[in-house]
Amino acid sequence: MADIFDFECCLSDEARRRAAPGTMVSASGAPDDIVADLLVGQPANEALPLDYMVEAARNALPENYPALLYGRRKGSLELIDVVREKLRVFEGLEVDRDQIVITNGSGQAIDMVLRTFVNRDQLIALDHASFGALFVRRVSDHGAHVAWDAQGPKPEALDELFATQQPAIFYTIPTFQNPMGNTITRERRLEVLEICHRHGVPVFEDDAYYELHYDGDRPASMYELDGGSGLVTRAGTFSKILGAGIRLGWILTAAPLTDRILPLKTDGGTSPFASALASEFMREHMEEQIARLQDIYRERRDIMLAALDAQVGDLATWKRPNGGFFVWLTLRRPELLNDVMQRCEQSRVLVRSGSVFRVDGDGLGAIRLAFSHAPHDEIRTGVRVLGESIRASIAANP
Ligand SMILES: Cc1ncc(COP(=O)(O)O)c(C=O)c1O
Q1: Whose C-alpha lies nearest to ligand 1, atom 14?
Q2: CA distance readout (Å), 303 to 35, 327, 376, 378
Q3: Is 106 in the pocket of ligand 1 (CB under 6 A)?
């Protein structure tokens, strides 16, 4: 075998700045001896419409030469029309084709939008705990989390941060938030928009879970409430509807702004092949698939909540999420977070520490539990082990 080339000394500043490769274990890549996988927010196997995708391929591919050629930079027109149709059916929202850009999952959308608005030395404002922390670290050296109350980001906190530090953008996940599971109320959305307009701070609305609504309120999106002024850029994804492996998402914003975002897209056109399959599937099965997902995940959420009541009780607090994939658990003894995490790991139960969702690495004494992927019994087992781990940690640290 050849000697390993010493590439470390050749790395760019950007590559050096990046964190060491993550230790995220995906469900599919999890070792065999995992007892319960409550780690990654991804679909349940039975939610993945593989049979329908075979049918979609049979219908969509014959004679479809463009499906295997380079695609349009803004993405497949037929998929753009599918996104428009979804917005019309589920939200009564009418948008034009030139307001949408198809992306390689919403991950690419997040990256492109942040790079459009943010220089490395500029601040990004974020929710109290946010999936966005993973992206912010790549784009900027500065992130600031905005505290939430029961309605959403606290207006005084937002106002003060904007007045004193003028962030380049406010990145928020207002609906079925990842990791916190909660939703910004309509009134608070309007207040947040007013503050952002007043300070001239654009909003990035990451709406990955909008479709996965199980009960209770789901307010109109920030994009819709703002009336499409260009203040709010919204991203969505097919990862939660169809499966993350399809790698398709979209950006919705004011048409002129799409022209400023597009130069950051260097992918030869988001997979025309995947887009053809997804379009065919969505045209035939969109409403049925989303209704099915809502039933599957509502049941899993309820199983997790019942298990938490029985196994964790007053050792932690949590709220019932009305949608999405996650329950956010705050320990009564927040200082035990690392110890509890270690005990879960030793018992081969995978859960996510709150520290991943903060740019400052503060775990907030919280743990994110994904109920989306694990089968019912695995959810129950995982929560039982979590309860035992918390109890053991308290006993060891009286
Ligand atoms: C809030 C949020 N945004 C974006 C994504 C990225 O999804 P994808 O790149 O698969 O579309 C996720 C995935 O878990 C998410 O939870």
Answers
A1: 41
A2: 17, 12, 7, 10
A3: yes
